[in-house]
Amino acid sequence: PISELQGRVKLENVTFGYESDRPALKGINLDVEAGLSVALVGHTGSGKSTIVNLICRFYDTVEGRVLIDGQDVRDVTIDSLRSQIGIVLQDTFIFSGTIRENIRYGRPDATDAEIEAAARAVRAHDFIVDLPSGYDTEVEERGNALSVGQRQLLSFARALLADPRILVLDEATASIDTETELRIQEALSTLLQGRTSFIVAHRLSTIRHADCIVVLDHGEIMEMGNHDEL
Ligand code: ATP
Ligand code: MG
């Protein structure tokens, strides 16, 4: 198991294909210091989601190595790995139950006060208390009654409460209004603080936030640097 994780993530000469003939990633080298945030950008199919899939060890047939704190992710148990990585996917996972239960998902022992604190920190509290039964409002599976922005903020509250050392986030592509975007950006900077994070970024505002931007093209890294350098 991984204990006392720092959160340094390294991809060492990583080549990977879903189908054997066509690699989705080719010779990727990436070394991310603990606590830094990386924005992954590039055209559709360039390999952004594949990078985060491999960090989460959704696939094992990797050439090269994916290392967390110097340890190959294949040498640790899936459970201990996943307990250290917070995952916020594009299609935010919301199940039928109350808002409270949805935020508590990764931390079953969390108190109501902790849940509210997390929701406040990511600016989700205001919309939650405006719902018919506040934190006890029942949402349907897939969260259909909530807007895209609200779902995203809810998933941020969930991730913040779980407090992982490493965060992986596939940003929602759906269009949201300027005010919600601003709110999400503020929430995001709170969420990123002190963790190593990989964000598949679709918004320029998110990209500006990142310590490092990685530009992918056809499974290869084309450019790497911060917003001012690129
Ligand atoms: P997008 O912006 O559209 O999400 P992406 O940069 O995340 O694109 P990936 O999903 O990493 O792209 O895909 C990289 C390559 O791998 C593409 O050629 C894609 O068709 C292929 N691919 C992705 N997922 C699978 C899968 N589950 N099975 C087979 N091929 C896949
Ligand atoms: Mg993708």
TrEMBL record:
Record domain ABC transporter: where: 9-230
Source domain of life: Bacteria
Localization annotation: Cell membrane
Protein name, UniProt field: ATP-binding cassette subfamily B protein
Classification lineage: Bacteria, Bacillati, Bacillota, Bacilli, Bacillales
Residues of the full protein shown: 350 to 579 of 599
